[in-house]
Amino acid sequence: MTAVGQVSDAVARDEVGDIDIQLIELSKRFDDVVAVDALSLEIERGSFFALLGPSGCGKTTTLRMIGGFEEPTSGRIELAGTDVSGLPPYKRDVNTVFQSYALFPHLTIFENVAFGLRRRKVRGDELRRRVVESLELVGLGGLERRKPRQLSGGQQQRIALARALVNRPRVLLLDEPLGALDLKLRKEMQLELKRIQHEVGITFVHVTHDQEEAMTMADRIVIMNHGQIEQLGTPSLLYEQPRTAFVASFLGVSNLLAGTVTGADRVRLADGTEVRVQRDALGGRTGSVQIGVRPEKLRLDGSESNTLEGTVAESAYIGVSTQYIVNTAAGAVTAYVQNDRPGAQAIPDGSRLTLSWNPDCTFVVDAQEAS
Q1: What's the rounded Cα separation, in Å, for the pair 15 and 12?
Q2: How do residues 22-35 score in pLDDT, each as one tens digit?
């Protein structure tokens, strides 16, 4: 085997299945409030991982415990197999990027980025080289002499990112870093962060309450609720196969309709309509359930095998698609129709139509989780 081949194999062995962060029965209580409840989680090396959930679900507290800014009430935090639960932030091989940027206004961009390196006694040509490389990585080479106030919000966020990456941490923690940016800039930075993560190859752990942001950037997402993990998986798995009504409703729009299991692949809705589902979607459930289907999976022409009669209650043009609210005997249903043809006519309110969808597009959750 060549030397190159040996190096490649070594890298593969080191990266595949390696765990950078392991949380073991991690809990945090503030007086009588349980913010994080016996959470166990593994984050693989080199992944872009998102902690997603509504306000108060425990995601930020979890990130702060990983970074050393909060002390766990119980449980353990391991970084590359070493317990760091009792270590202060500066003794952990992690850096954090905050929403507030936290730049030093009186220092130049160069000195802001170099701050951590100087604390580590890096000097001379090595310091300059690493600062310049870090600024070029975030697309801001040549701005070393400016002050933070001379930069836009998006540029300041890039500087904060460069300052965190220049120390070459094992893990980068991102605490809602794009929350202060406008929508257009936020979407641009989502793609930029994903590019940077791929380029540097270190583990990113990103906290957000923005579902689209998490799905755009992350390889894997954990959805949290009341301090616990609701579901963990890839963006496509969570969206296409949510395990609970909470996940289905939090990650995009879902139509959830009450029904009763009548066979290995059949559910009877409240109005008596029988629909087919994938056999494995039932997951052994019997009795009362809820079936779910995403709005964009629905057709308004009755062309698929699952059908439901209804009346258009209202419609809204939202650019890329038109949203319809359709009243059916089984409940109100939302459908999206792509505006992919010029001059397409909207369906008037009050129109009768047949909603339909493919059985493979149907997921099933427990009935008692109805919101």
Answers
A1: 5
A2: 999 999 999 999 99
Written as one letter, the residue type at 61 is T
Q: Which phi and psi (to 5°) does residue 200 adopt?
A: -85, -25
Please give the distance of CA 313 from its chain centroid, rounded to a whole number. Answer: 33
Kindly state the tokens that stand for 115. 């701050």
First to last CA, the chain: 59
Could you read off the pLDDT of 104-126 as tens digits, one per residue?
Answer: 999 999 999 999 899 889 999 99
Q: What is the largest CA-CA distance in the chain?
A: 77
**Residue 156, helix vs strand vs coil:** helix
- List, in sequence order, every residue forming a beta bridge with 100; answer none if it has no partner: none
CB 270 within 8 A of CB 331: yes
Does the pTM exceed 0.90?
A: no
Edge-to-edge strands, sheet with 331-338: 331-338, 321-328, 306-317, 352-357
Count, in order, helices (H) and strands (E) of the chain. 10, 19
Q: Which residues face 36 on adjacent strands?
A: 28
Structure tokens at 229: 């993990």
Q: What is the 8-class DSSP label of residue 73?
A: S
Structure tokens given for 371: 């919101």
Distances (CA, A) of 70 to 60, 109, 332: 10, 29, 44
Domains and CATH numbers, the chain: 14-240 (3.40.50.300), 253-369 (2.40.50.140)
Q: Sheet harboring 255-263: ordered strands across?
A: 274-276, 266-269, 255-263, 288-293, 363-366
| DSSP states along 135-146 | HHHTT-TT-TT-
176: left (phi > 0), else alpha (psi -120 to 50), else beta? Answer: left
* Strands 255-263 and 288-293, sheet pairing: antiparallel
205 - beta bridge partners? 49, 173
Token pair, residue 286, equals: 């019997």
